[in-house]
Amino acid sequence: MTRLIITLLLVLLIDIYVFQAVRTVAGSFAPGARKAAYIIYWAISLFTLGTLLLALLTRGSAPNPTRMQVANVLFILFVSKLVIVLFLFLDDLVRLTQWISNTVRGPEQPKFDVSRHRFMSQLALVMGALPFTALIWGMVKGAYDYQVKKVTLKFPNLPPAFEGYLLLQITDMHSGSFHSGEPLEKAVAIINKQAVDAVVFTGDLVNNVASEVEPYIPTLAKIKARDGVFSILGNHDYGDYVAWGSREEKIHNLNTLKNHHRQAGWDLLLNEHRVLERDGQQIALLGVENWGHRMNFPKYGIMSKAYAGTEKYPFKVLLSHDPSHWDGEVNTQYQDIDLMLSGHTHGMQFGVNIPGWKWSPVQYVYKQWSGLYQKGRQHLYVNVGLGFLGYHGRVGFLPEITVFEFKRG
């Protein structure tokens, strides 16, 4: 109860602080318009407080689409208000400096006006509107704006028969976050349109429990490729973020999820490898369970087990969900892995992504977090994911379908 009261008081204090900017800007409005602005602001604030109170009191209830959408709107409002608070705080620092200066000035010297600066209040509201607009757009448009990225990679040791080989990667579906099957139907149609040789899925099929993907298995089973669809597990697939009644329940959930991969016609690689063949020549496709080198993510993967028996193949592709595995183990102990494909980061579903420059807060946690990286002869590609988690949208880093074309060179 104490935590609940503290949370509500904190939100209320932020609302009161932000209202200072609203009051300053609305001060020049006509009385009716000013009153309307105040009423609208506090109506939204009271709705936020009421909804937050209800969410905290019913914590643990099963999520539903309406509940999740409301939670996302509240999150967006909170982020926007934090931006406003930052600018108001800067204004208050200036006002504090001016007040101190006034106290030390002589009686005949001019004094600073220490009332809140109208320009800073206007700037605070404008800057707060930017993330609000962007994050709302990310929910309405960005969440399902699937992007096909085509990447050509050259390898001197690629067998000649695999010249022009097309491999498609998807990752981080987080099927529990979808409200309907229509977006996935759209994604599958785009995937099949690429007419690739193989499709790989690099983990996080669900948010927490196996049942989340069950409505979408028939849709996922429609994904087709000449050499098949191959998959691995991600950190969310193990059910580690659920308070299970027993260890047996958790194990049953994981086994059920593994079976769902098979029901979709996917070849799930559990610390093992497969051999792809074309015109008598072969390459190896390795898949490990989740292996994280950052943020205390678990190390279920056994690279030595997946690698055993692949030494004789001239070209190797590794599927590993967490990109920190690359620096943590792969490029130091397995230097004949030509290409590692990962996901996990989502590009944090928010950032700036323009030709020649990209930025996201996740880059302060992960060294490799989006796109192509190279160290010596080895390559790593981090796909920012097909779905979303937490925030039901994407800004900057849109849902990604990556098509790799292998070339000799």
TrEMBL record:
InterPro entries for the chain: Calcineurin-like_PHP, Metallo-depent_PP-like, Metallophosphoesterase_sf
One matching Pfam family: Metallophos
GO CC terms of this entry: membrane
CDD domains assigned to the protein according to its UniProt record, in alphabetical order: MPP_YkuE_C
Gene Ontology terms for molecular function: metal ion binding; UDP-2,3-diacylglucosamine hydrolase activity
Transmembrane stretches, start-end: 37-58, 70-90, 119-140
Keyword Transmembrane helix recorded: yes
Superkingdom of this protein's organism: Bacteria
Domain Calcineurin-like phosphoesterase: start-end pairs: 167-347
GO biological process: lipid A biosynthetic process
Alphabetical UniProt keywords: Hydrolase, Membrane, Metal-binding, Transmembrane, Transmembrane helix
SUPFAM superfamilies linked: Metallo-dependent phosphatases (SSF56300)
Gene3D superfamilies xrefs: 3.60.21.10
Protein name: Metallophosphoesterase
Species in which this protein is naturally found: Rufibacter latericius
